[in-house]
Amino acid sequence: MGNRRHGGSNASFAKRRRKLKEGLDTKNPNEDHRSSYETTIRENEKFVQYYKMQKICSEDEWNTFLEVLKTDLPTSFRITASCDVEAKILLKLVEGVFFTDLLKGDLNDEQSNSKPFCLPWYPQRLGWQLKITRKDIRGSEAYYRLHNFLISETGNGNISRQETVSMIPPLLLDVQPSDKVLDMCAAPGSKTAQLIEALYSGSTSSIPNGLIMANDVHNARCYMLVHQAKRLNSANVVITNHDATVLPVMNLDENGDTMLKFDKILCDAPCSGDGTLRKNADIWTKWSPGNANNLHGIQFRILKRGLELLNVGGRLVYSTCSFNPVENEAVVQRMMTEAQGSVVIINARDKLPGLKTVNGLSEWIVVSKDLDVYKTFEEVPEKWITQIRPQMFPPKEDLYNLDKCIRILPHHQDTGGFFVCVMEKIKPLPWETSIKQTNELVDEVKVNNYKRKPKKRRYQGYKEDPFIFLTVDDPVWPEIRDFYELKNFPIECLLTRCSVGKKKNIYYTSTSVKDIVKNNQDRVKIINTGVKTFVRCDNKSMECNFRLAQEGLAGISSFIGQKRRLQLTRSDLITVLKNPTIPVNSLDPATKDILDNFGVGSCILNMVDKDFPIELVGWKGFSTLKAYVNGECRLHYLRLLGVDVSEFDVNKFKKETNENEPEDKSEICTDEIPEVQVKEELIQSEKSE
Questions:
Q1: 142 vs 156, 645, 661, CA distance in Å?
Q2: CA 247 – CA 230 distance, rounded (Å)
Q3: Strand partners, 214
Q4: Which residues of 128-152 are buried (b: 16+ CB within 10 A; e: fewer)?
Q5: By the 8 A CB rule, do 560 and 484 touch?
């Protein structure tokens, strides 16, 4: 069983061993047999024939469409919009420093054509696209610095590198801070991260009332999802591992008297992925006309379950990264037929000004994997009737406004291919009845039109540790409460994953997420929730055995008293961030006087600024002070404060230049001065706005 888990089998291993003994297997296991990316085959005759017949673009655009599809996809990224002030400063930094460096100096023709391009439809100019290759990074210092910057800020969650068209579905959901949002097929998590940003960006509270439930059927991919969500340090996210087609209704109380219905649902369904050919070139050789036929059923069931879990008046976005109408319009029109007027398609093009789109198709063809064309289901041979179903065929007339669906083609704005349909539920679905939350799974199954109770699903992957919520009687609570002067703190929202022994980490969740986790651990496999807030730190000199964690500080800061807060000047904070630890004596005299009577242990470092206040977790030693944050977080805040962080970067270009030249300190300082001045000007301009 162990080999199967990792994708192998005992039979194949034994066969390989026999061949080795007989000398028949001459393959060197250490030799790399992969072809280079440049030599990857980007041809598939069936693909060309199939989509020419589908008429997904006009005849005069066809050659351009095919040519662009065989080229590499540009790099794209977006600046995180959770904090409006930080997003604006980062944008000024990107435009005013990094892009300026890219555009100055002598540029060859290829570099001139790869200027940074602001996505006109992405809000607040926070989405960008540029053509950058490994060759560019190796050969240009400006590209190299930009690359390092993107990696550093991506690790912190302040920038997300994401394919351009992938940014569209979350925008069209129009998430508000009070919305309860479901991402049905969430992994690897770039869209989920965007949904989290939207939840926070319009919120006036550090913890919005809404929530994000991110689900995926593949256990291993759920941990990729955890990694993405953790970058944003949100207490409003719960990650589950379940089959989206039978995702259960969530209870919100112990008795099951209240059930959870979602206000917004993202249904980014699994698909053949031929819209990603520019990014995943190996699909060229694997593509087959029959792929879409095999996926149509699962896509429909996911969409159907999504609409069942949606509130009346709620919005669902169905999307795929496929050109194929069998996976797109055919799924939508099948759902609309069964919904019988309960759902309408919304025209959302006005939400994406500047994005070039194509209307959804109302006519298409259905073929077998051998590319045999069938105009009606009656023409389908018996051998194909299990793969080609009558619902895949186009309607005789478009009753559902399929032209309101959105198609994005690669050659229009140098992107990948994508399909999006925005749907609104205006009344209950025909088969929906009023369900009391005390009903068991059998009753839920009846609502889903199943004839018999399905088998109980076996959980895959690792067995997760339990989620144990703290109470006022917990022995660790009094010391945490008193040390940090926590007032009116919702202790019922603190949880730990440790059922026995000492609690190592304590996590904080929102009230809405807490209700889901407490009442549904036996109904769905919960992978992760909560943001790390308190970490065990057994220190004899500290009155409390738990220190604060930077990840959860924003969510609980409003509950913490003044006892463990330290006000720092701008210059002192910069000094603290630039050094691992600093002697208290080297700080501002006023700060030093405060620290003389400041107890040892975890604390909050505050820089009070009406335009850009900063709060960081710190640690006060006997005679030292430090910021208790990781290196990337230090660099992030130093950048925002206008500090030149080039001294912390490994600049191979300067190394190569100085290898055969004597070091000239004055020259280096002169070169660095303009960059600091530019960044300080950015901060000053930000404050004046």
A1: 22, 15, 22
A2: 23
A3: 183, 239
A4: bbbbbeeebbeebbbbbbbbbbbeb
A5: yes
Q: How many CB atoms lie within 10 A of CB 453?
A: 12
When mean pLDDT is compared over 367-371, 436-440, 647-651, the highest value belongs to 367-371
Cα gap 543→78, rounded to integer Å: 43
Note if 321 is an active site residue: yes
Rounded to 10°, the helix 665-688/84-93 angle is: 140
Higher pLDDT, 455 or 360: 360
Contacts for 71 with CB less than 8 Å, ≥ 6 apart: 278
Exposed (0-12), middle (13-18) or buried (19+): which is 13, by Cβ within 10 Å? Answer: exposed
**Helix axes 570-578 and 631-640, enclosed angle (nearest 10):** 150
Looking at 125-167, list the stretches that DSSP marks H as alpha helix, in order from N- to C-terminal side. 134-139, 141-156
Straight-line distance from the first to the last Cα atom of the chain, in angstroms, rounded to the nearest whole number: 62
- Is this prediction's pTM over 0.70? yes
Distance CA 268, CA 191 (A): 9
Distances (CA, A) of 487 to 207, 508, 567: 16, 15, 20
Q: What's the gap between Cα 596 and its chain centre?
A: 44
Largest CA distance in the chain: 89
Per-residue pLDDT tens digits for 289-311: 999 999 999 999 999 999 999 99
- CB distance 407 to 419 below 8 Å: yes
In this predicted structure, the answer to whether residue 681 has a pLDDT above a threshold of 50 is no
Question: What is the C-alpha to C-alpha distance for residues 395 and 209, in angstroms, rounded to an integer?
Answer: 42
> Which among 57, 267, 271, 321 is annotated as catalytic?
321
Return d(Cα 364, Cα 118) in angstroms, integer: 34
Rounded distance between C-alpha atoms, residue 137 and residue 134, angstroms: 5
Q: pLDDT tens digit string along 51-80?
A: 999 999 999 999 999 999 999 999 999 999
- Rounded to a whole number of angstroms, the CA Rg of the chain reads 28
Strands 582-583 and 624-627: antiparallel
| DSSP codes of every residue in 305-329 | HHHHTEEEEEEEEEEES---TTTTH
The DSSP symbol for 96 reads: I
